[in-house]
Structure formats: structure tokens, C-alpha cells
Amino acid sequence: MGRKRMFDSIHLEVSLSLVFWLMGFAQCAFAQSPELVQAAKKEGEVVVFGSLENDVAAAINKGFETKYGIKVKYFRGSSTVIIDRVTTEHRAGKMSSDIIYTTSEPMKFINKEKGLFARYIPPSAKSYDKKLIDDFFGPNYRSVIIGFIFNKSMITADEAPKSYEDVVNPKWKGKIAMGNPSLHDTTIDWLSSLDRVFGSQAKANDWIKRLAALKPLLLDSMVPVGERVASGEVPLGVAYVKYVQVWGGKGAPVDYVKGLPVYLGDGNYIAMTAKAPNPNAAKLFIDNFLGAESSAIMASVGEFVNRQGIYPPIPGADHVVKSFVQMNTMTVDEYNKKKEEYRQIFSR
Fold first, then answer.
1. pLDDT beyond 50 at 6
2. Is-contact 312 246, C-beta < 8 A?
3. What angle do helix axes 292-300 and 54-68 make, rounded to 10 degrees?
4. pLDDT digits (tens, 9 = 90+) for 18-65
5. What confidence tens digit (pLDDT) does each residue in 253-267 have?
6. Contact indicator for 37, 56 with CB cutoff of 8 Å
7. What CATH number labels 2-142+266-319?
């Protein structure tokens, strides 16, 4: 396990060295003011709560520290953990974090706490499509996109599905892995948003029932789905498209179904807290985080970043980005009803 982690770290380091070389010429066209930079340097540190993998966040943080000499303290947690921690601190009047970043719905949920976040749209936001800029949070800086991945050593290009309809062909019975829709939040969100693919809830429900009839292998999340497909335990899976790069970079024969008309997923936002202990460093970090270099770091490991002109090294990535559709938002009651509905459908 230690040797594997060492290899992964070396691979990421080499990849990021290439990214820095390629992006070295790129400078932000809308630089921060010298006054803000000096004020941030006087604060000396910035505290960040986020959901990016530690290796990727560390590379971004290192770039910021090298550029500005400001220390980054990073705490990684799931969206649920982040929500609990920041709302508890806010209510106690003892906010320790300067910056929060995670998926869109948790960010919007946190923002319901009056006075927890402060609106800040940095200069680097100008490099994002206006359609992706929220009035409060600013740019959706990356999209976590779901598709169908497959093992190329088990499924040839000709045999692979070409559409949503192909995925529910009876020939795939017992050969598909997916998140457990009675346990995994993202899978529940994905299933409940399929009306955006099929044009109606009735057509979506019919497709879901046919998928359930294939008796897919139900796993705790999409991470083990990627692992099972990469290892060849199952040939096909419902998972994040970025796994093509994550596992392909490790030598696994993983590909994805290209050319779909819609790829569902979730956006991500970054924001500063209203009572940030280091407000100037927070503003500088956000601007750097949304900049070209940080976006390229995320893209290098398969993330679909939304800064214009930057894509992950995945064939057809530009089409995936153009075909991305945000998953539906549900109330707690709606979510619980869907969860029970899918539990019954997939347990038959």
C-alpha cells in the first residue's frame, strides 16, 4: 500500500510539473491590487475547509504559498462534515475558517445561515462563462459529472453502449455496478434528475425500472464503482467520468460512453466566511483558486473545471462540459420520498 501511494504521489508530482510548465506563460489578466496583496501577507495565513482530495488541494495550496508566502491550513471533509462544523462554529460565534468550498447544494444550504458567508466575486471570475456565475457565490469552478464508464479489456468499442437506452439492454444484466440508491446521496440525486435526460418523469421512471431489472451491483458510493470497473470485476458502471483519468493514469483500461446528449452532475462553489479571521488572505486565495494555474492542477487529475479553455486530458471532454446539466434540487421531504422509492425499486 505504501509503495502504491508513493507511485501515485510521484505520478501526480510529475503531472503537475508538466502543468506548471505549460501554464507558466499564463498570467491573470485581472490582477489583484498591490494593497490587498500586502494586507494578505501581513495576515500571514489562511484557513480553508474543502472537499478536494488532499493531494490536489496540497498542490494548489503549495502554489499559493510559493507565490505569496502565505501559509495555507487545509481541512478536508465531506459536505456533511463541513456543514456541521461551520454552522456549529458560526452559532457559537467562533469561526475558525476563512474559506469554504464544496458542492453547490451544501454551499447553498450553509448560506441559509444568516451572516455566515460574505459575498465576494474576485477579478479571476471574468474568465468564466457568465451562465456559470452565481449572483452570490460567483463561478461554479468545477462540475462533478456522472456518466457510464467501462473496462476496455472486457468491452470493445463496438460493444460498448452508445446511449442511455443501450445501457439498459438485457445483455448487461448482472454486469453493471452503481451506487446504492438507498444509501448514496449522489446516486439518489442522479436518478431523481433523469427527467432532464428523457424529457419527462414518466420516461425517466421507465428507464430506472429497466436499470433495476438488470440487478446491478449496488455499492456504498461511486468510488468502489470505479475500483471494480478498473480491476475488471465488473465491465460497466455508473460513476464519475473523471475516473477515466484517475484510473487510466494508473494503467487501468478504463473508458467512458462518449457523445451522450446530457451528462448530469453537480457544481462546486468557493466562498469566504463573513467573520473570516484573515479576510484579505481569503480574498487573495479565492482569486488564485479560480485562476488558470489552480484550474489546470484540478484538470490534470480529471476534474472538469469551468474556467474557459481548460479541460481534463480525457477524449471528448469539451463535449462533456457543453452537455453538462445540473442535477435537480430537492427538499428534505422530496429526497426522503425518492430514497424510499428507489429502495423499493432496486430491492425487487
1. no
2. no
3. 160
4. 444 444 434 444 567 999 999 999 999 999 999 998 989 999 999 999
5. 999 999 999 999 999
6. no
7. 3.40.190.10
Note the pTM of the prediction, 2 decimals: 0.84
What is the rounded distance in angstroms from the CA atom of residue 186 to the CA atom of residue 191? 9
Distance CA 108, CA 113 (A): 9
Q: Is the pLDDT of residue 236 over 80?
A: yes
For residues 147 and 56, what is the distance between their CA atoms, to the nearest angstrom?
22
Are 257 and 236 a contacting pair, CB within 8 Å? Answer: no
Pairwise pLDDT comparison (285 vs 105), residue with the higher score: 285
- In this structure, what C-alpha cell is assigned to residue 33? 491590487
Cα gap 300→55, rounded to integer Å: 12
Strand partners, 237: 149, 177
Among 263, 216, 214, residue whose Cα is nearest residue 237:
216
What gap in Å lies between CA 60 and CA 41, rounded to an integer?
Answer: 18
CA distance 54 to 74: 9
Q: Where in the chain is the domain with CATH 3.40.190.10?
A: 2-142+266-319, 144-265+323-346
Q: Which CATH number among 3.40.190.10, 3.40.50.10780, 3.40.50.720, 3.40.50.300 corresponds to the domain 144-265+323-346? A: 3.40.190.10
